[in-house]
Design a protein that fits this description.
The structure holds three protein chains of three kinds. Chain A is α+β, with helices and mostly antiparallel strands. Chain A is built from seven helices and eleven strands. In chain A, the strands form two sheets. Chain A has a six-stranded mixed β-sheet with strand order 8-9-10-7-1-11. In chain A, a hairpin with a 2-residue loop joins strand 9 and strand 10. The longest helix of chain A has 10 residues. Chain B is mainly β. The longest helix of chain B has 6 residues. By secondary structure, chain C is of the alpha+beta class. In chain C, the strands form 13 sheets. In chain C, strands 8, 9, 12, 13, 14, 15 and 28 form a seven-stranded mixed β-sheet that branches. In chain C, strands 41-42-43-40-34-44 form a six-stranded mixed β-sheet, sandwiched between helices. Chain C has six domains: 101 residues, 2Fe-2S iron-sulphur cluster binding domain, sarcosine oxidase, alpha subunit, N-terminal domain (Ubiquitin-like (UB roll)), CATH 3.10.20; 193 residues, FAD/NAD(P)-binding domain (3-Layer(bba) Sandwich), CATH 3.50.50; 126 residues, FAD/NAD(P)-binding domain (3-Layer(bba) Sandwich); 141 residues, 2-Layer Sandwich (Gyrase A, domain 2); 92 residues, Aminomethyltransferase beta-barrel domains (Alpha-Beta Plaits, 2-Layer Sandwich); 82 residues, Elongation Factor Tu (Ef-tu), domain 3. Classes of the chains: A alpha+beta, B mainly beta, C alpha+beta. Chains B and C meet through helix 1 of B and helix 20 of C.
Chain lengths: 167, 80, 980
């Protein structure tokens, strides 16, 4: 059961090419979600135009990954719904792919229980604050940038037993 | 008690949660509000935070002698 | 090397391997355990006991083995206390017996028992009293403890897996398999753990039929069926404990720690089907090597052919002994006698027993009823037994080299009971069973006191079906397996053979801890009467043993001595882990550098490659100093600090906590969070602000920037960012629900480079280029400007933590290294945290040494801020009288009276004539600007007068330095540099 952990994408996230906007609604967010076209069920992920996505990872808080200029403008203008905060650089994305990907994560959390009925979850992985996303290819993990290298080291330590490759 | 159920995230390991304190007693003066706590063996009203998860602040009713959680709600107005 | 004749056993292959035990090489067959092969070689003594150093052999074959614990490996890479019957041998394994010096055969400490007789309970505490326990402690500690602790920590890290399921079945014997079948047929997610490498449990031994086929074939078919149904089967895996629906199972193939894995299994239902543990009968010298449990002999014989040719006497109080005897005879063991404590009348009632007796007698086996083995004879191993008729007292001696005892079985349910529940004595079964099960937990089979195959199979199936239906899961067709096995045990409780009072000290109950009947009697005589007190005073069932073989026997004998019922004595509670685990396995992945996370800034790699000496400060890795400025930390820091004041320097401040606070209500919200008002800050300006805890103590300080009417950035101390975020979030939810306050941690989204020194402005203007030129020119102290550097967002804040003209550059991490290198190229050299500390103490700025959670604004000379009267969190409690006592500390500066002596933080301040502390030094540095030692101190208000002379006493380092009280601002008190 091998797993490949892709860590290079962190540099994409840090660059200006990918914009990550975290917006947080302040009121009963079911209406906020409607108003902005954001996912409303906890733990859901919706695609936005231009291949960006919106992660509903905490009550009234969404992480918008790579939103289009038009979508971002709409968000920025929607002051009546909530507040946007620029967080480019805060999160680093890792992708875990391969048949052993779930086993790697099971070393630190109960993956099935955590993601039961949801596509994303705010969770602590290997002691690092993370947002875990499951997609068709495997998993994407958003980790706080300051602990990203520790996260990779933790996964690499599992290497021998779980045949993890990184790069 | 090895886990708690966050109203937003579902059941998670206890280690993801931080206990803050039991709710203050209904004392009027500031000293009582800070220092006097309700301390009931079977019905404790408590603040918790899902600090290693979604960061939601939680208001819990718990039976500390059994660990049974009687109620668990998001503290703020935001609901999913 | 000792070679052996080939043995035949269900676990053995023909291949051989070699291993070393106590320095000698032996040959084993693949599949052998350390216990089986040593027994086959005729080596009965496998270790010495911990207290009396008596030679000990194998008692049980399973993890409950109390005696035969071995140390595996070579110093310092050793794993102590590995159970020999669990230890699967591998080529070249090095094993050592334990608790002996210099050798197993001859142990110096064992002479103690010859000299002084046996030490009873409490012996050490009562004997080694003069002049004090400490005189003897180190000697006794050397003798104490089980085995040798590892000296190295590079064992492989245990793997960890978290998983969840609907039903966890612990144990894959008849009961566990039956339960798993029912559970799996409901469609539930089932996990089955089994401590042995193969499934089947006792079915291996019983001459049993299940559903008309031999039990072993049924086990194979059932295993295939379970796999088809998607059951996850974990062999070599033992349930060791767990609470609240999370169960810890430990996978330890071959019983060898170091190749293990820890499972955290969350399940809705736990089915405990862990069988039962056979218990010994107490008799004189029952700890001699060669005395073992009947079931252990059966395992050794069937699995490993290890007892062929041995002469055995069986001593039991139940029916099963005869079937076992017959199987042993068939396996080539020379069974000399079966000694049964039950009366002839009882035996005759049972046709099966009578038939067994007859056929055994034909085979030359002596069958004695109403008799007991009272004593095992022999020096190093058993050479014979003394038998006594219980009514007539008639004695008889039989020569043998094995005494196999069986006093019944105790359900092994304690691993599952760690989460709560109690036990009750069931007199009809002469055993304790579990009562008041919590929801979602059941015990089945022998674990619930059923010992007949038919009953075990049907009870396990029906109990599991019931608990599944409570979950709404109904089986779609698993029938109840029909079993036909050994007859009912028809056990008559029997605990210890007759002996004189002086012989009670040789009737052992707990072998691992050398607890005898005499120890229980002593414990009672000295007032330790409750079973939990007896456990601790007499050490009954402590250590890795945890009462598995001893606790029921101990309770029964205690009941006899107290003249009470076993029911009223009860069982002591065993502790997790119910089966031994290494500390390393418990630590899981959190070992070495993984013990805690290390946060790194985007400039981390630059610091490392440019001579930065990085240390963890809180969770952050930060450069203390750079080697180019001196190999010695103190010299380098002074060099770096001096350079900042003369020309300038840059420091990595990315660790600074940053919280973006956004929304229509945030100005009012921040007003309530800080001692002074945020709402008065103009857009584009910033302000130094202080937070209080609700009890009035200072919590943190930082600069708050106002970006827009509804947008602020609150900075926090590096170590405080996460706590401050929680603090703000809490008050938002409690006091400001539903209001427009958004709090976002942006610490990692912004790198911070602090540029300080007279040349800082020119350097920044040069690096940032013409578009920033005039904007920087017009920035006054606490102003900021926003823009871009190399296309990445940049905020330039004019603020200082050094007292120099200084700027903080908040830049997106993508451009952090480029900006840092450009500043270095422009001639500003980096400085570390040690230099930063010098600069801030010179200015009297605060860090956690002063903001230590015990200081009020008044203590820190912030009275003027308090007088502004902003009603913030914590404000109301500042008026407490105790906060204004003359003895309460206030922050002052201190310098040595002679202008050259040093003093360190922690030194106590006293008057010249007294040693009564009036305060203490919180921070101290050597100031390159003043060329002398300076410090900050918290000093009683009554004494906090500039010019007063005190003594800084540092008894730990033997220093006494006369110091003068000064202003907290040692350098540039008028602040000319900062405004330049």
């Amino acid at each position: 059961m091998s797993t490949h952990v892709q860590t290079e994408s962190c540099w994409l996230v840090r660059s200006v090419a990918v914009r990550v906007v975290e917006i947080a609604a302040f009121d009963a967010s079911s209406t906020a979600g409607d108003g902005l076209g954001l996912p409303r069920r906890p733990g859901t992920v919706t695609g936005t135009d231009d291949g960006g996505s919106s992660l509903y990872f905490a009550p009234g808080r969404w992480l918008l990954v790579g939103p289009s200029a038009a979508f971002e403008a709409r968000i920025r203008a929607a002051a009546q719904w909530g507040s946007w905060v620029e967080v480019t650089g805060k999160w680093v994305a890792m992708t875990l792919q391969g048949p052993g990907a779930q086993r790697v994560l099971a070393s630190t959390i109960d993956v099935e229980a955590t993601l039961q009925g949801r596509e994303c979850a705010a969770v602590t992985l290997f002691d690092c604050p993370s947002i875990l996303v499951r997609d068709e290819l495997g998993f994407t993990v958003w980790v706080h940038a300051s602990v990203a290298s520790d996260w990779v080291a933790a996964v690499e330590r599992l290497g021998a037993a779980l045949t993890v490759t990184t790069g | 008690m090895t886990s708690l159920s966050c109203p937003f995230c579902g059941v998670r390991e206890l280690a993801e949660f931080a206990f803050h304190k039991t709710l203050p007693n209904a004392g009027d003066d500031p000293l009582s509000a800070v220092y006097l706590r309700i301390n009931q063996v079977d019905d404790s009203h408590e603040y918790w935070q899902h600090v290693r998860g979604c960061r939601a602040w939680l208001k819990a009713r718990r039976n500390p002698s059994t660990g049974e959680v009687l109620e668990m709600n998001l503290l703020g107005a935001v609901t999913s | 090397m000792k070679a052996a004749i080939k043995r035949v056993g269900t676990r053995l292959s023909d291949k051989t391997l070699r291993f070393i035990f106590d320095g000698r090489e032996y040959e084993a067959q693949v599949g052998d355990t350390a216990a089986s092969v040593l027994m086959a070689h005729g080596i009965f003594a496998l270790g010495r006991s911990v207290k009396y150093r008596r030679l000990r052999g194998l008692l049980a074959v399973g993890p409950e083995e109390p005696n035969a614990l071995l140390t595996v490996g070579v110093t310092p890479m050793v794993i102590p206390n590995v159970s020999a019957p669990q230890l699967q041998l591998r080529e070249g394994l090095v094993l050592k017996s334990q608790n002996r010096w210099p050798s197993l055969r001859f142990d110096v400490a064992s002479l103690l028992q010859l000299g002084s007789g046996f030490f009873g309970a409490g012996f050490y505490y009562k004997t080694f009293m003069w002049p004090s326990w400490r005189t003897y402690e180190s000697l006794i500690r050397r003798l104490a403890g089980l085995g040798e602790a590892p000296g190295a920590s590079d064992l492989p890290v245990a793997a960890v897996e978290y998983l969840s399921c609907d039903v966890l079945v612990a144990g894959a014997g008849a009961a566990g398999l039956s339960a798993a079948l029912v559970a799996a047929h409901t469609g539930a997610r089932v996990v089955l753990v089994e401590r042995e490498p193969v499934l089947g449990g006792e079915l291996e031994f019983e001459s049993a039929l299940v559903d008309g086929q031999p039990a072993t074939s049924w086990v194979t078919a059932t295993e295939q069926m379970l796999q088809t149904l998607g059951v996850r089967i974990l062999t070599d895996t033992t349930l060791v404990g767990g609470t609240g629906g999370v169960h810890i199972a430990h996978h330890e193939p071959g019983g060898l720690a170091g190749h293990n894995k820890v499972f955290h299994i969350r399940s809705r239902v736990l089915v405990i089907a862990m069988g039962a543990i056979e218990r010994p009968i107490a008799l004189i010298n029952n700890d001699l090597p060669g005395v073992m449990l009947l079931g252990a002999a059966e395992r050794l014989s069937r699995r490993y052919g290890a007892l062929t040719g041995r002469r055995a006497v069986i001593f039991a109080n139940h029916q099963r002994a005869y079937a076992a005897a017959a199987r042993l005879v068939k396996a080539g063991v020379s069974v000399r006698a079966v000694i049964d404590t039950r009366s002839a009348a009882v035996l005759e009632q049972d046709a099966v027993t009578a038939r067994h007796c007859a056929s055994l007698q034909v085979a030359g086996v002596l069958c004695l009823s109403e008799s007991a083995v009272v004593s095992a004879k022999g020096w190093r191993t058993v050479t014979g037994v003394d038998i006594q008729h219980l009514r007539s007292g008639k004695a008889k001696r039989i020569a043998c080299d094995l005494l196999l005892t069986s006093g019944g079985w105790s359900p092994a349910m304690h691993a599952g009971l760690q989460g709560g529940g109690t036990t009750r004595y069931a007199a009809d079964k002469a055993t304790f069973t579990v009562t008041d099960q919590p929801i979602g937990r059941v015990t089945v089979g022998a674990s619930s006191g059923h010992f007949e195959l038919a009953a075990v199979l049907s009870e396990a199936a029906s109990v599991t079906a019931r608990v599944m239906s409570e979950l709404g899961l109904v089986s779609d067709g698993a029938g109840i397996p029909m079993g036909l096995g050994d007859p009912a045990p028809r056990l008559a409780p029997y605990w210890r053979a007759p002996c004189t009072p002086s012989q009670e000290k040789r009737q052992f109950i707990d072998f691992q801890n050398d607890v005898t009947v005499a120890d229980l009697r002593a414990s009672l005589a000295e007032g330790f009467r409750d079973i939990e007190h007896v456990k601790r005073y007499a050490t009954l069932g402590i250590g890795t043993e945890q009462g598995r073989t001893s606790t029921v026997l101990g309770a029964a004998i205690l009941a006899e001595l107290k003249g009470e019922s076993i029911e009223s004595v009860g069982l002591s509670r065993p502790r997790p882990p119910y089966h031994p685990m290494t500390m390393r396995a418990m630590a899981g992945l959190r070992v070495g550098s993984a013990l805690r996370v290390a946060k790194r800034t985007p400039l981390h790699d630059w610091h490392v490659s440019h001579g930065g000496v990085l240390d963890p400060m809180g969770l952050w890795m930060r450069p203390r100093f750079y080697r180019s400025n001196g190999a010695d930390a103190a010299i380098a820091a002074v060099t770096e600090a001096r350079r900042v004041r003369t020309t300038g320097g840059i420091v990595d401040g990315s660790t600074l906590g940053k919280i973006e606070v956004v929304g229509a209500d945030v100005a009012a919200f921040l007003d309530s969070m800080y001692l002074t008002k945020a709402s008065t800050i103009k857009i584009g300006r910033s302000k130094y602000m202080v937070n209080l805890r609700e009890d009035g103590m200072v919590l943190d300080d930082g600069i708050v920037l106002r970006l827009a009417a509804d947008r602020f950035i609150a900075t926090t101390s590096s170590g405080h960012a996460e706590h401050m975020l929680s603090h703000f979030e809490h008050y938002r939810e409690v006091d400001w629900p539903g209001r427009a306050v958004t709090l976002t941690d942006i610490t990692d989204a912004w790198s911070v480079i602090a540029v300080a020194g007279p040349r800082s402005r020119a350097a920044i203007q040069h690096v940032l280029g013409s578009e920033w030129q005039s904007r920087i020119e017009t920035l006054t102290h606490m102003d900021f400007a926003q823009g871009h550097y190399a296309g990445v967002a940049l905020t330039v804040l004019r603020a200082s933590f050094s007292g120099e003209l200084a700027y903080e550059l908040h830049v997106g991490p993508a451009a952090a290294v480029a900006l840092w290198e450009a500043l270095v190229t422009s001639g500003l050299e980096p400085y570390g945290i040690d230099a930063l500390d010098i600069l801030r103490v010179e200015k009297g700025y605060l860090v956690s040494s002063e903001l230590n959670g015990q200081t009020t604004p008044g203590d820190l000379n912030m009275d003027s801020l308090v007088r502004l009267g902003n009603p913030c969190v914590g404000r109301a409690l500042l008026d407490r009288p105790a906060f204004h006592e003359p003895t309460r500390g206030r922050l002052v500066g201190v310098r040595a009276v002679d202008g050259c002596s040093g003093f360190l933080a922690g030194a106590q301040l006293t008057t010249l004539s007294s040693t009564q502390p009036l305060g203490y030094i919180t921070s101290s540095v050597f100031s390159p600007t003043l060329n002398e030692w300076i410090g900050l101190a918290l000093l009683a208000r009554a004494q906090a007068i500039e010019g007063a002379t005190l003594i800084a006493r540092d008894p730990l380092r033997g220093q006494e330095t006369p110091v003068r009280v000064t202003s907290t601002v040692h350098v540039d008190p008028t602040g000319e540099r900062i405004k330049s």
